[in-house]
Amino acid sequence: NPSLQYKFGENTDLLVQGDYLRSDITPDAGVGIINQNVDARLPDGISRANFINAKWAYNVTDQASSSAVLNHRFSDQWRVNAIAGIMDTRVHGLGVAVPNGNIAANGDWTRNLSGVQTAERDYNGQLNVNGKFETGPLTHQLLVGADALRIVTNNASGYAYQDLNGRALTTYDKINIIDRTKYAERTDGVTYNVTGYTVAPSYRFGGYVQDLITVLPMLKLLGGVRYSYQNVLQTKLTNTLTGVETLGTAADKSDRAWSPKGAVIFQPLPTLSFYTSYANNFITNAGLLNTNLEPLRPSYVNQYEAGVKTELFGSRLFANAAVYRYRNSNLAQTTFTLANGTATTLTTVRELSGETTSDGVDLDVSGSLSKDFYFNVGYAYNYARFTHTTGVVGTQIEGERLTNNPAHTANGSIFYTFSQPGLRGIKVGASAFYTGQRLGGNNNAVLDPITLQPTLPNGATNPRYVPYFSRTIALAGYTTIDLSVGYTYQHFSVLAKVSNIGNTLSYLVHDRYSINPIAPRQFMTTVAYRF
C-alpha cells in the first residue's frame, strides 16, 4: 500500500496512493438447510465443522487500485478538494453450487457445479468546495460538490465443466449433509471453460450542496440536497464458441432522483445538545418493469431521527440516545395485471405499492473513570417489518419481520492500562456482544388460496403459485465474549486476543441455502513495530 505526498507550497498538497490485494479462500456455503418442500430448518445434531462444498473448491480475488487527492486552501475560510481514482477487481473460482432449496428431508443433496469468472473496473472522480462566511447575523459552513462513477463489468455467463480426464459433467455427485458416510463422496478436481461473457457498463453522476447555518450560539440548522443520475446501459453478450455477439433483452435504463436532507441542532449547554433530522435516498429497481412494461422507477426511503448527546462529570462520561424511523413507502410488489387491464405472467412486472418500516432506539454510554480505565456499553432495538403489501399471491406478508434484523442487540467493553512500575505498558480488555432473536432465510409470501401449491395441476411452473411451507428459520439469541491483553514498549507492541471464549454456537442465515456457523473460539496475535 505505497503512498506519496507532494507539497506544492504552503496551501497545496497532493497525495498519491496505490493498493494491491490478493485473496485466495476456500468458499464455504455453510452447513446446509433442510428445505426441499418442507418448513426450512437446521439439521439436527449437525457439527459446525460440516463442510458441504468440494474439498478442492477455490475462490481467488485480485484487486488493484490507485487514487490521487489534491487539496488546496484559498484562505482560512475557503478550500477545495479533488479526488480521482481507478479500481480493478478480478475474481475466478470453482466449486459446487449452493443448495438452492433442494436438500431433501432426509439430508440427500445432489451437488451441481458452479464457476465464477468476473472482472470489474471502476473509475471515480469527486470535487468538493468548502467555505465559511457570514450573511448578517448568520454564520454558514457551506459544502458544494459533485461526483461521478463509471463501472464496466465483464462477467462469464456460461460454463462447460469437465473432469480431469476431459469428460463433460453436469452434476458432481450426491451427498447426505446429515450422514456423510451414506454416499461415497467425490474428491477429484474439475476444470471449466467459459462459453459466454456479458459486458455491462453503467454510469452515475451526482451533485450536492449543504449548508450548516448558525442562527444563534445554541441553535444550528442544516439543509442540503443531492441530485443523482444513474444510467445502466444495455448489456452485450458474446458466445465464445461461435463468436456471435448479441444485445441483452433489457434496454438502457436511466434513473434520476433528488435526495434532500435537513436537521435542527439545539445546544442549550456546552455539554448538552438535542437534534432532529430528515434524509431521503433512493434504491434502484434494476431489471424490473412497471405495468406499462417500462423500466420501473426507483424506490425511496425516508429517514427520520431525533436524539440527545451529553457529557457528564467533567467530560469523563459521554451518553447518546436516538430514536429513528426508516420507511420505504413505495416498495416494489408483484402484480399480474398490466395498466391496460390485461393479465400477465411476467415475473418481472412490479408496482410500487408496498411498504417496509423500521423503528428503533440506539443508546450508548462511554467514559474514562481514570486515565487508565475506559469502558463503553451500547444497546439497540429495531422493529423492521412489512407494514403494507398488496396481498397479491407471491407478495410479502404484511406484519412479518424482515429477515436478519434482530430486535435486540447489545455490547459492552472495558479496558485497563497498567501504569504501575513493573506493569507499565500492559493493557487488558474484555468485550461482550449480544445478538437477539431473529429470522433467517427468506421472507414468506402470500399463498394461492385454492391450491396452496407451487405449481399448476398439470405440473407447469407458474410464478403465481408459491410454496406452502415456511421459508423463514427462527434463530435464538446468543452472546459472545472476547478477552485481550497487549504490551507496548517504545516502538514495539504485541496484542493477543481470544474471541468467543465460550465457543458459543449460533448461525448466520443469509438466505434459504447459505447458513454459516459463527466463528468458534479463536486465538490471534498481532506484532507491530513503529518506525
Class derived from helix and strand content: mainly beta
CATH class of the largest domain: Mainly Beta
Q: Mean pLDDT, nearest integer?
A: 89
Termini, distance in Å? 16 Å
User: What number of domains?
Assistant: 2
Shape: globular
Q: Which topology of the largest domain does CATH recognise?
A: Maltoporin, Chain A
> SSE string, helix = H, strand = E?
EEEEEEEEEEEEEEEEEEEEEEEEEEE
Q: Tally the helices: what do you get?
A: 0
What is the percentage of strand-forming residues?
over 45%
Architecture per CATH nomenclature, i.e. the level-2 architecture of the largest domain = Beta Barrel
Overall strand count? 27
Radius of gyration: 28 Å
Largest sheet features: 23 strands, antiparallel
Approximately how much helix is present in the residues? under 10%
Unreliable stretches covering 5 or more consecutive residues = 453-460
**CATH H-level homologous superfamily name of the largest domain:** TonB-dependent receptor, beta-barrel domain
3D architecture notes:
With 531 residues, the chain is an all-beta fold. It has two domains: 1-248, Beta Barrel (Maltoporin, Chain A), CATH 2.40.170.20; 270-531, TonB-dependent receptor, beta-barrel domain (Maltoporin, Chain A). Helices cover 0% and strands 61% of the residues. The protein is built from no helices and 27 strands. The strands form three sheets. The protein has a 23-stranded antiparallel β-sheet that branches. Strands 21-22 form a two-stranded antiparallel sheet. The chain has a two-stranded antiparallel ribbon with strand order 25-26. 11% of the residues are buried. Residues 453-460 have low confidence and may be disordered.
